[in-house]
Amino acid sequence: MSPRICIAVIGALFSLSALAATPKDTLVVAKNIDDIVSLDPAEAFEFSGGEVVANIYEPLVRYDPKDPTRLKPALAATWKPAADGKSIEFSLRKNAVFESGNPVRPEDVLFSYRRVLRLNKAPASILSQLGWTPDNIEQMVRKTSAGTLVLGWSGEFGPAYVLNVLAARPGAIVDEKLVLQNEKAGDLGNQWLTRNSAGSGPYKLKLYKPKEVLLLEANKQAANPPKTGNVLIKSVTEPATQRLLIESGDADIVRDLGSDQIDALKARPDIRLEDFPAAAVHFIALNLKNEKLRNPAIWDAMRYLVDYDGISGQLLKGQMRTHQAFLPVGFAGALTTTPYKLDAERAKAILAKAGINGLEIDMDVINSPRFMDMAQSMQASMAKAGIKLNLLPGTGSQVITRYRARKHEAILLYWGPDFFDPHSNAKSFAYNVDNSDGAYQSTTTWRNSWLVPELSAKTLAALKEADPAKRATAYQNLQKEVQARSPFVIAFQEQNRVALRSNVKGYVQGSVADLVQYDGVTK
Asked: SS3 for 450?
């Protein structure tokens, strides 16, 4: 895309001027992208950032969006586990190149993994599960020829689990030569990769203005170049504005509509609505660094102070389903029972028995309609039992950054699995053996200062269980314990309802952000 065309497309979307159609070679998407903290695959850990990373970079293996329990080749053409079940040999795809034109080498794979571990940002915890550290990674991942490498690990789990980990976001392979050319003060290119790209996927990053707009351009070096040359993502937080964009033809896809906007679009022949399953669970979490929140009676009472049916059935109908366990429906062992209902009298009795009254809690919440609607409903229902919930709105990136730093009292947020194995969410909600400030972990347990050595042992035991039925039962038991005695009020599982112009074909949105694919879209 030439600079002139780029400016014209962006200008048209910003002005909201009515167009007969968006440019033929540009897919225009309107959604909220203010949760992006970074676009570096070693740091991106938010939904919007993960979606962008997935369209720029390739891992060795990737999930099939239609059936994420299946893995398919990406940069690895083939792989073969060793007989002892402790290593895998990968053969790289022949003639694979990065957007720079540099060939993809085993050295790039090692560099990418080592870089994630050395930067030690939020996604590093995913790779470190394999027993990898910055000091031992070169022994664990070894080049065996110009196009092959052997990858080993430590831990009582097999190749299938390792492949799931490698398909996750921090498994993305970056161009070592290009990244190091843009390194500053030993940051391994981290600052540069926030606004630039160094991948081998279908797109490359052309422009990014935080909280405003993001433009992807076709990577002409890609093995399978995208069918649409450009993807323009405009950050639009208001559902009403998104509706205007899709109706006027100024957007091809809109992603964050409210129930009112969805109802208004149902009769439009030039627009279709599609539902996509989502694996994200939404919950309230209480930070136990705050002494006033440590009494389990508070956690128990709050579970009876959410209007589950009102929020899922009326306020956000079609966007949320009541779900009260940490494993989303669709995962092996997912617990689907919903034992909690709105019951203010019961909550008041629980608080009174514990001698708790006049409780005031500050809750961080993303300042967008869907989250604010839920938060305001919760604020009203909590008040019925004497809990004053003060809402602290912020952009997605602001809220998530505070959460990672454990500076919140309470938070209303979401969590999506990092890879398609039950352990991904189990570790996040039921594992924490080191609660110290210096032991950063990308888990809800650590971020809310909930130390759970007993549950942690059960989580590791479930990971090691070889029998699928017994393993599923172990995860169901874990969910029951977290459901009953944790500082988390898990309330909903997300459902994605997307509006598309009728001429848009080939859009793929899997159950997690990493499975949103733009490269097959035509219009």
From this structure: coil
Amino acid at position 243, single letter? R
Strand partners, 282: 414, 492
User: What residue ranges of the chain have pLDDT lower than 50?
Assistant: 1-5, 9, 12-19
Q: Do 412 and 284 contact (CB within 8 A), yes or no?
A: yes
Q: Is 211 left (phi over 0), alpha (psi -120 to 50) or beta?
A: left
Dihedral sign, CA of 200, 204, 210, 214? negative
CB-side neighbour CA atoms (13 Å) of 454 = 6
Q: Which of 44, 394, 1 is nearest to 195 (CA)?
A: 44
Distance separating alpha carbons of residues 177 and 192, to the nearest angstrom = 13
First to last CA, the chain: 17
- The pLDDT tens digits for 379-412 are 999 999 999 999 999 999 999 999 999 999 999 9
Nearest to 286, CA basis, from 455, 123, 432, 403: 403
Residue 93: count other Cβ atoms within 10 Å of its Cβ.
Answer: 19
Which domains does the chain possess? 1-38+201-270+502-523 (3.40.190.10), 58-194 (3.90.76.10), 277-495 (3.10.105.10)
- Token code pair at residue 140: 């664990």
Note whether 70 and 63 are within 8 A (CB): yes
Angstrom distance (rounded) from CA 70 to CA 393: 39
Tokens of 91: 């053969």
Nearest partner of 254 among 101, 161, 369, judged by Cα: 369
Tell me the residue type at 494. Answer: E
- Sheet strand arrangement including 148-152: 76-81, 87-92, 148-152, 141-145
- The kind and range of the H/E element at 362 are strand 360-366
Residue 78's Cβ-count burial label (10 Å; 0-12, 13-18, 19+) is exposed
Are the beta carbons of 502 and 271 closer than 8 angstroms? yes
Q: What is the pLDDT of residues 88-131, one digit of tens each?
A: 999 999 999 999 999 999 999 999 999 999 999 999 999 999 99
C-alpha 314/C-alpha 43 separation (Å) is: 37
Residue 104: DSSP 8-state: P
Q: Where are the alpha helices (DSSP H) in 75-230?
A: 106-119, 124-128, 137-140, 159-166, 176-181
Rounded to two decimals, what is the model's pTM?
0.84
Widest CA span of the chain, in angstroms?
69
Give the Cβ contact number of residue 12 at 10 Å.
Answer: 18
What is the spatial distance between Cα 115 and Cα 111, in angstroms, rounded to a whole number? 6
SS3 272: strand
Residue 397: strand, helix, or coil: helix
> Residue type for 66, please?
K
426 in helix, strand or coil? helix
